[in-house]
Design brief:
The protein is mainly β and 161 residues long. It has one domain: CheA-289, Domain 4 (OB fold (Dihydrolipoamide Acetyltransferase, E2P), Beta Barrel), CATH 2.40.50. The protein has a six-stranded mixed beta sheet, with no helix packed on it. Strands 3-6-7-5-4 form a five-stranded mixed beta sheet. The protein is globular and about 50 Å long.
C-alpha cells in the first residue's frame, strides 16, 4: 500500500446485534434514534418489522439481525435498542440494532477485504476490522436491502399511511 492509502480513514457507526459488534458505513446514515413504536404490516418478509412515522415520513424498518440470520443470544430486553435511519437515493429505511455504541474512524489499511468470503446473500459486508475487542464486520447499509425489496417496502409503507 502507498502512503496516501495508509493515512486515509473511513468512519463507521459501531452497533451491537445480539452479542456481536458491527460497523455501519457512516456516509449513508442520516441519523440514529431511540426505538419508537413500530407498526407491523401484514404479509411482510420476516426481516421487515413494519413502519414508523418520523418527521412527516413513513419509514420502513428492517430487523438487521433477522436479515443476517443472527440468532438473538440474549434474554429479554437487556439491550438499548435503536433505529439507524439510512438513505438510498431519495428513499429512507431504518435498521433495528440492539445497541448504538459509537462513531469510529478506521484507517483503510486496517480493514481486511472480504471479497472471497462473501456471496450474493452477504454482499453487504464490506470488510473486517480487527481491534482490541476482536473482529468487527463492516456493513454497507446501502446494500443491506436490495433496491427491489426497498421499493416494495416503501410502496407497502405508503399504502399503510
Amino acid at each position: 500500500m502507498n502512503a496516501e492509502v495508509d493515512n486515509k480513514y473511513s468512519r463507521f457507526l459501531m452497533v451491537t446485534l445480539g452479542e456481536r459488534h458491527f460497523g455501519l458505513a457512516l456516509d449513508s446514515i442520516r441519523e440514529a434514534i431511540a426505538l419508537p413504536e413500530i407498526t407491523p404490516l401484514p404479509s411482510s418478509p420476516r426481516f421487515f418489522l413494519g413502519v414508523i412515522f418520523l418527521r412527516g415520513s413513513v419509514i420502513p424498518i428492517i430487523d438487521m439481525a433477522a436479515k443476517m440470520g443472527i440468532k438473538e443470544l440474549y434474554q429479554g430486553d437487556s439491550f438499548d435498542k435503536g433505529i439507524v435511519i439510512c438513505q438510498v437515493n431519495s428513499q429512507y429505511y431504518g435498521i433495528l440494532v440492539h445497541a448504538i455504541d459509537s462513531v469510529t474512524s478506521i484507517l483503510l489499511k486496517d480493514i481486511s477485504e472480504v471479497s472471497n468470503l462473501t456471496n450474493e446473500n452477504t454482499s453487504y459486508i464490506s470488510g473486517i476490522y480487527k481491534s482490541e475487542q476482536g473482529l468487527t464486520l463492516l456493513i454497507e447499509p446501502l446494500l443491506v436491502v436490495e433496491k427491489s425489496d426497498l421499493s416494495a417496502l416503501a410502496e407497502k409503507a405508503k399504502l399503510s399511511a
